[in-house]
Amino acid sequence: MNLLGHYNYIVVVVLMMLGFYTVIARDNLVKKLIGLGIFQVSVFMLYISIGYVSGGSVPILTEGVTLYSNPLPHVLILTAIVVGVATLALGLALVVRIREAFGTVEEDEIRLKEDAEG
Amino acid sequence: MIAHNLVALPVVLPLLAAAVAVLLPPGRKPWLLATGIAWLVFAASLALALRALGGEVLSYPMGGWEPPWGIEYRLDAANALLMVLIGAVAAAVFPFAGPSVKRELGEEKSPLFYAALLLFLAGQLGIAVTGDAFNVFVFLEISSLASYTLVASGKDRKALTAAFSYLIIGTVGATFYLIGIGLLYALTGTLNMADLAARIPEVAETRAAHTAFAFIVVGLCMKIALFPLHLWLPNAYTYAPSAVTALLAASSTKVAVYLLIRFVYGIFGADFSYREMPLAWLLIPLAVVGLLSTSLVAIGQNKVKRMLAYSSVAQIGYMVLGIGMASSLGLAAALLHVFNHALMKGALFMALGALVYRVGTSRLHQWRGIGRRMPWTMAAFVAAGLSLIGVPLTVGFVSKWYLVLAAIELGFWPIVAVIVIGSLLAVIYIGRVIEVAWFEKGESDERCEAPLSLLIPTWVLVIANFWFGIDTRLTVGLAELAAQSLGGTP
Amino acid sequence: MSHHLILRVVAKFLIPLILVYGLYVHFHGEVSPGGGFQAGVLVASAFILHALIFGLNKTRPIARPGVLKAIAAGGVLLYGGTGVAGMLFGGEFLHYGVLAADPVKGQHLGIILIELGVLFTVASVMLLIFYAFAGRQKPEAQ
After folding, report:
1. B58 pairs with which residues across the strands?
2. How far apart are the C-alpha atoms of B377 and B249, rounded to whole Å?
3. Closest-approach residue (CA) in chain B for A102
4. Cβ-based contacts of A98 with chain B (< 8 Å)
5. How many CA atoms lie less than 13 Å away from A22 in the CB half-sphere?
6. C136 touches chain A (CB under 8 A)
7. How far is A52 from A57, CA to CA, in rounded Å?
8. Nearest to C32 among A60, A82, A100 (CB)
9. pLDDT tens per residue across span B95-113
10. B72 backbone dihedrals φ, ψ, rounded to 5°
11. Smallest Cα–Cα separation from B194: which of B96, B112, B122, B266?
12. What residue of C is the nearest CA neighbor of A98?
C-alpha cells in the first residue's frame, strides 16, 4: 500500500478524528460546533478528492480537452455545504439563546443548573 | 397530469406550502393551510398505496432525467406503507396542533412554526419516496433541521439544550451516513438505490464496502435512537410542544428505521448484511438490552411525557429485533411495528397533549383523579396505552404476535421471553398512570374535558389503533408485500 | 465608525461593484462556474459590508427584515413554481425541457429561473441570519 498515493484519505481521516474528538470531548458548546464543522469539512474533502481524475481538466466544456474531472461529487458537496451552513446557523442561534437562558455556554455548568431545577 | 405526477406531489405540496405559510399573517391562517395540505398529502399517499398494493412499482424521473443518471422517485410496497403512515399521522396531528400550540406557544410566531412543520413533513415524505441515496441525505437534513427548530420552540428553557444535543447527534449521524454514501459512490460510481443494489455484489469483498456499511448503519442508528445512541431522544420529546412530540414520535424515528431496512435488505442485501457482516450480532443484543433497560427506566419517571419518551426507545428495540432476525417474517413484523407503533405513540402523545392542555403539566403527581375530571381524554390515553402493552384486538398485539411468530420460526425462545417481559414492563408503567389518574383522589371532581378540536383527532387515531388491530388486511398485506420485495432471507 | 473616512469611501465604491459581480456570477453561471447560490452570497455580502461600515441601523431601513422574509419565501416559490410549470406543460417536476418549444431553450430558461429563485432566497436568508446575530440585544439591555 502506497501511503503517499493515499494522502488525501489520510488528511480526511486526521481531520475527521480531530473534529469528532472535539465534538465529544469539549464542554464548550461553541467549540462543539467548531468541531462539528471540521468533521463535516473532512467529509467534503473526501468527496472532492474522489472526484479528481488524474490529469483531468476542470469540468467545463473546452475545445481540445477530452479528460475531465468528475463534477458530480463537487455538486453533491455544494448541497452538503449549504446543509452545513444551515446547521451551523441554527446551532449558533441555539447557543445564543442558551447563553441568554442559562448565562453560560459550558455544558457542565448548564447541566448543574438543569439538575437544580429538577 | 396529476396521475403522472402523483408520486412527486406529496413532497412538492408541503415544500411550496411552507414558503406560502411564511408569507401569511400570524394567527389561524398558517394552521389552516398546513392542515389542508396534510389532508391532501394523506389522500395522495392513499391513492399511491392502492396502486402499490396491486404490485405496481412506480418510477418517476425527477426533472425528466432518466435513472440511474437523474434522481429517481421510486415507490414500492415498503415506501407506500411509510407514506400512508406519515400522511395519516400528519392528517391527524396537524388539526390537533392548532389549539394545542396556541395554548402552549401563542400565535405570534405561527407562520414560522407551521412553515417548519410543513418542511418537516416534506423532508419525511421525501425520504420515503426517493430512490436516490444522496437525495435521502438532503431530505434527512431538511426534516432534521426543521425538527431541531420545532423542539427548540418549546417553552421550557431545557428545550434549548435538548434541541442542541439533538442537533449535534443528528448531524453526526447524518454525516456518518454521508461518509458511507461517499465510499459507496467511489466504489460503484452510482447513487441510484436500485443501481447500487445491482453493483454492490461485485465489490462486496472489499474493505471499503465493509466500512461504508458500518458508517451507514451506525449513522442511521443514531437517527433511529437505538440504545445506546438514544440519549438525545428523551429530552427532545419531553420539552418539545405536545403536538411536535406527537409528530416526531410517530414519524421521525420510523422513517429512519425504514431507511435502515432499505439499506440492510434492499441495497446491501441480506446476504451481505448477515453473512459478510455480523449485523445480527450487533442489532439483536442491542435491541434486547435497550428494550429491557429503557422500559425499566420508563417505570421510574415521574413525568408522563418523559416516561413515554423512554417507552419509545424501548419500542424501537422491537423493530430492530425484527430487522435483526434476518427472515421475511421478522422483516414483516418490523415493518408492521413501524406502522403500528406510530399509531399508538401518536395517539398516546396526543391524548397527553390534550391532558396537558387543561392540567398544564405532565408531572404524574398532579394528575391525581384526572380520570374523573377528563374521562374521555383519559379513556383515549388508556385505550392507546392498552395498544402499547399489546392487548388483543389492538395494533400492538398484531405486531408483537408477528414478532413472536418470527422468533419461534427461528427457534429464538429467549427472544420470545424478552418480548413478553417487555410487554409486562409496559403494563407496569402504563398501570402507574392509570392508578394515579383513576384511583387516587384529586383536589376537585369538577369536569373540565379537553375541547373537541383536540379530542376528535386523538380519538380518530385511537380508533385506528383498534381498526387496524381487527382488520389487518391493509397493513399486513403491505408489510408482507414489502418484505417479499426487499427479499427478507439471507 | 463615522471617523473612518477611507473605509467609508472605499465601501461606497465597492458595494455597487460587488452587487454587479454577484449578478455576473448568476447570469454567467450557465457557461462558467457560478450560479444562484454563489451569487446570492455575494449580493448578501455587499449588504453585510454596508452594515459593518455604516452600522446596522443604516442598513435595516434599506433591506428591511419583513421584506427580506417575503423575498426569501418568494424565491422558494419561484423555484417551485418553475418546477410546477414543468408539470403543467406535460413533463415532470423541474423538467425544463418542456418550458419552451425548443428543449435547449427550455433548459436555458428553466435553469435561469431556478437559479434566480435560489439567488433571492440565499441572499435574503444570509442577510436575515446576519441581522439575527448582529441585531440581538443582550438580555440585560432589553
Report:
1. B75
2. 19
3. B157
4. 160-161, 164
5. 18
6. yes
7. 9
8. A60
9. 888 888 888 887 788 889 9
10. -110, 135
11. B266
12. C139
**Beta strand pairing status for B72-75 and B58-61?**
antiparallel
* Selection from B364, B378, B369, B385 nearest residue B449 by Cα: B378
DSSP B7: T
- CATH number, domain of A63, equals 1.10.287.3510
Q: Is C14 exposed, middle or buried (0-12, 13-18, 19+ CB in 10 A)?
A: middle
Instruction: Identify whether the C-beta of residue B237 lies closer than 8 Å to the C-beta of residue B248.
Output: yes
Which residue reads 501511503 in cell numbers? A3
The SS3 assignment for B340 reads helix
CA-based end-to-end distance of chain B = 41
Q: Please write the tens of the pLDDT for every residue from B224-237.
A: 988 888 888 988 99
Q: Which helix (H) or strand (E) holds A71?
A: none
pLDDT for position C141: 42
> Which of B15, B23, B63 is nearest residue C95 as measured by Cβ atoms?
B63
* Helical residues (DSSP H) of B204-231, grouped into ranges: 207-224
Domain extent listing, chain C: 5-136
Return the residue matching grid coordinates 408489510. B479
Range of A86's domain? 4-117
Q: Give me the residue spans of the domains in chain B.
A: 278-490
Please count the structural domains in chain A: 1
What distance in Å separates the CA atoms of residue B50 and residue B83, rounded to the nearest whole number? 12
Say which residue the cell 416534506 belongs to: B122
What pTM was computed for the model? 0.93
Location of C-alpha cell 443518471: B69
